[in-house]
Amino acid sequence: MVVMDSTYQELSYTVTNDSAHSGPRPCLIYQEIQFSAPANIDHIVFRNFYCFALTITQSTANGSSDGAPYWTTILRSYKLMTDPHYEDDAQYSHRISSDEFEEPFSREVPVYALRFYLEQPSPNWKSFGLRDLSCFTKRENPSKEYREGTVTMGAFEDQELVSRVQEVMASISDIHATLKVLQNQNIYT
């Protein structure tokens, strides 16, 4: 089960390029996003839509001396489907941690933009892409209560009541996380 962690913050971005080669398939297709401010990425979450594999490049500077962005590969041909010709796992949700990224990626170096190169060698699918894409960073200094997902209830004298309320809150959090995972996998809609 995936547990929602309040130590992460979703990053805002704009889609700056949704490019497709107009030649015969298979062809090069990529989606490019630019962050509203340089960001330290912890992980990426998305729902696959018939992409067989994914390559991610990053831009860590506004550009080279001539003003063009400088792109480096941080994830190469990451498989999203077992077989490109069958749809069994074609719409699964994925979470890619920055631990899986290759050098020269560094969590300490802010990223300005990402490109997601989409690979689908099968002619079976007329369209493919990434859906519900989100990028996350770690919060700078979340409070202890916020990190632990607890509420300070020191003002209450009835510790048994406080304990029961905290148990209910934990159960609700687990249920919410489970429903979110099921919804992302299109099992519960």
Which labels suit this protein?
189 residues; alpha+beta; Jelly Rolls; 2 domains; five-stranded antiparallel beta sheet; 2 helices; flat; Nicolin-1
The total count of strands amounts to: 9
CATH topology of the largest domain: Jelly Rolls
Q: Can you say what the CATH homologous superfamily of the largest domain is?
A: Galactose-binding domain-like
Q: Estimate the strand proportion.
A: 35-45%
Q: What overall geometry do the principal axes of the alpha carbons give?
A: flat
The side-by-side strand order for the widest beta sheet comes to 2-3-8-5-6
List the uncertain runs: none
First CA to last CA: what distance?
18 Å
CATH hierarchy: architecture of the largest domain: Sandwich
What's the number of domains?
2
Give the H and E element order. Answer: EEEEEEEEEHH
Count of DSSP helices? 2
CATH class of the largest domain: Mainly Beta
Radius of gyration: 20 Å
InterPro entries: Nicolin-1 (IPR040235)
